[in-house]
Target: Anti-bacteriophage protein A/HamA C-terminal domain-containing protein
Amino acid sequence: MASKIIKGVRFIFKKTYAVCYIETFSDDLKNIIKQQLSSICYGPSKASQPRKAYNYINTVRSFLERYEKKAEKTKIGMVGELLTHIFILQFLTEFKTVSPFFNMEERSITKGFDILLYSKNQNELWITEVKSGELQKDKNSNQTNNILLGKAKIDLKTRLNENKDTLWENAINGATVALDNIKDTKEAVISILGDIEDEIYEQKAVSTDKNVILVTSLFSNLKDQLQENTIEKFYTSTLNEKIFRKVLVLSIQKNTYKKVVEFLKDEAKI
Model:
């Protein structure tokens, strides 16, 4: 799946887990953000429309408007989720994103599940949870990353075993918006989500038949680099717990989230 090259980014993919090191915030990566931002935020259907609201500059401004109103922890989470969208689109090309980053009704970020992905080859839905953060006190990068991965796992396990229909209603609404003009994918995704929602109404929510991607976006110095073996161990232990059907683990490491925000603020002035 991982075939593209981005200058300044080192991506290691091992089928069941992946690690992404952002060594420099390169022009390559900036250009990809420019190309993908509207589609990520609004979904490909809206982004393809020749409307000023969905053009690049106005999307940047809308992102920053949402960003500036948030608490620091949420700001870090927004940047981490944006980077997750970017690298899944670029490297994990089996998947299509079927949920917009923006929540249209409340001009906020999406509620419920962070990212929903669809594998057309397998006709499968993958539910993605992203946990982002900076280095924790008295912890190294690998220890902090394991804590974030653990939170992602527990959060998804909890929500996927809840008979909470609003989660799936939001997912269906998001997919409908994101895929409005992509008929075959839209029908397949809505059908899968509808089947899950039926289970919720029957009080039969389970996590064991769901595919999940557990993602961390860690903002810490790359001199203390994430180790592949710790991520692989987390994947193996999670799989052995048998709480999900299939599992993929993705960890992203970058020195700071602030360079991404500075870039977007510069772009908004254009």
Observations:
- The first helix runs from residue 27 to 42.
- DSSP finds nine helices and nine strands in the chain.
- The beta strands are 9-13, 17-22, 95-97, 102-103, 108-109, 115-119, 124-134, 211-219, 246-254.
- The mean pLDDT is 90.
